[in-house]
Amino acid sequence: MSLxxxxxxxxxxxxAHDGVRHWWLQRLTSIALVPLTVWFVVSLLALPSFGxxxxxxxxxxxxxxxxLILLVLTAAWHSQLGVRVVVEDxxxxxxxxxxxxxxxxxxxxxLAAAGVFAVLKVAFGxxx
Amino acid sequence: xxxxxxSPHLSVYRMSRYTLATSIANRFTGLALSAGLLLxxxxxxxxxxxxxSYARAARVLALPLAKxxxxxxxxxxxxxxxxxxxxxxxxxxxxxxxAQSQRSAWLVVTVSLVLMLxxxxxVWLAGAHAP
Lengths: 128, 131
Fold this sequence. Notes:
The complex is a heterodimer.
Chain A: H1 6-11, H2 21-46, H3 52-60, H4 62-90, H5 94-123
Helix pairs in contact in A: 2-4, 4-5
Chain B: H1 17-48, H2 51-61, H3 64-91, H4 98-129
Helix pairs in contact in B: 1-2, 1-3, 3-4
C-alpha cells in the first residue's frame, strides 16, 4: 500500500515540509504564554486598585507595556492556531470553512493590532 | 477515497472517559480563553480611550454577569495552563503510557483545581479590600 495520495504521486514533488508548521507554532506560542500569562495574572492581582490612574501608571511602565504587547500578540497567535483547528474539525463544506477561517484570521489580526495600539497609546501618554 | 490511513484515526481508538474529558475540556477552555482575549483587548482599548471611556467600560465590567465571566475565565485559565503543560511533556515523547496518562490526568485536574482556588481566593481578597 502506498502512503502517498494520488495527487502527490502525479505531482511527484514529495513533502513540502510545511506540515509541522502549525504544530510547531502552537507549541512555541504555548511555551511563551506560560510565563506571560502567569506574569499577567500575578500583576493584575498585585494592583492596588483598578482605578483609571492606577492602570495608566501601571501600563506606562516600560516593562509592563512590553510584556502586555508580547502577551496580546502571542495570545492572539495561539488563539488563532487553536480556533483554526476547531473550525477545521467542525465546520464542513469548503466554502463555509474557508469563509470562517478567513473571518477568524481577520478577527485575530484586529484583536492583536487593537491590543498593541491601546498599550502603546497609554504607554506613550496618549490616553487622558 | 485513498486506501492509505488518514488522520484522524478516530475509529481505532477506544476513548476512555478520562482521555475524552481532559481532551475536550482543554479545547473548551481554550475557546473560552479566546473569548477572554476579546475581553482583554476591550479593557485595554477602554483604558486607551481615556478616563471617560474607562468609566463607561468599568460599569459594564462590574455587572454581575461580568463576575460570572471572570469566574469562568479563572477556571479556563487554570485548566488550560496545566493541561497545556501536560501536552508539552507529551510532545517530548514522555509519559504517554496508559497508566502514566491516567495518573497525569488526575494530576492536571487536581493541580488546576488548586490553582483555580488560589486565584479565586486572591481575587476575593482584592475585592474585599477594594474601596
